[in-house]
Design goal:
The protein has six helices and nine strands, in the order H-E-H-E-H-E-E-H-E-H-E-E-H-E-E. The chain has about 200 residues and is an alpha/beta fold. The protein has a single domain, classed as Rossmann fold. Helix 3 links the parallel strand 2 and strand 3. The chain is globular and about 50 Å long.
Length: about 200
């Protein structure tokens, strides 16, 4: 399903996560946010793009065409969304994915198929991150482990329809603070837990 861009329902009509809310509140205190080019991994209901107080631009990616349709029809200036699996071999190779000042991924490892794919994904993040750029995530999302599978559902309104359903995943997809520190050290990044929040950040210094 990594390249299956069928019209699966997923998170477009569901509530934003606590991690997303906390990250928006945190970023809206940045005086220089208006200069940031942002990449949002897993756009969901586009809460982040709708609630940040200013930025140069946001690119979003999703595995759900319904999320992408929602994002691209909100008519938010400098916000566009693409179909892309962050774990795929060719992720972020296309020229539209230029350098970013900020990457937001509230589920860094939660949906990984294996540690090797996760490491390659994180390498890609570092590669497309500007100097002094940030990767932001949330501790709650780090404690999730999920597998995404396409399923058929039925309702009187929609009859048969397709959606992406989450199943419990392997414990190895939960990301610990210790692992984050090791990851940062190996990639020459600075890792911090943002005081008073559940936010963690990797800085490219």
């Amino acid at each position: 399903m990594f390249n299956d861009n069928s019209d699966y329902l997923y998170w477009e009509n569901r509530k934003e996560t606590d991690d997303e809310i906390e990250i928006v509140n945190y970023l809206n205190h940045f005086d220089n946010l208006k200069y940031f080019k942002i990449l949002h991994i897993g756009t969901g209901n586009s809460y982040i793009a709708q609630n940040l107080n200013g930025y140069t631009g946001i690119d979003g990616i999703s595995l759900s065409n319904n999320e992408i349709f929602l994002a691209n029809n909100l008519n938010i200036e400098n916000y566009k969304c693409f179909f892309l699996n962050k774990l795929s071999e060719k992720a972020f190779n296309d020229p539209e994915f230029n350098k970013y000042d900020l990457i937001i991924d509230v589920n860094l490892k939660s949906y990984s198929c294996c540690n090797n794919a996760f490491q390659k994904m994180f390498n890609n993040y570092v590669k497309i991150l500007n100097d002094n750029g940030l990767i932001l995530s949330g501790k709650k999302g780090m404690n999730w482990s999920r597998l995404l599978k396409p399923v058929y559902r039925f309702s009187l309104k929609k009859l048969f329809y397709k959606r992406l359903k989450e199943f419990d995943g392997p414990e190895s997809n939960k990301l610990t603070i210790s692992e984050c520190k090791s990851l940062a050290s190996n990639k020459s990044l600075k890792f911090e837990e943002v005081e008073g929040t559940n936010i963690v950040k990797f800085s490219k210094i």
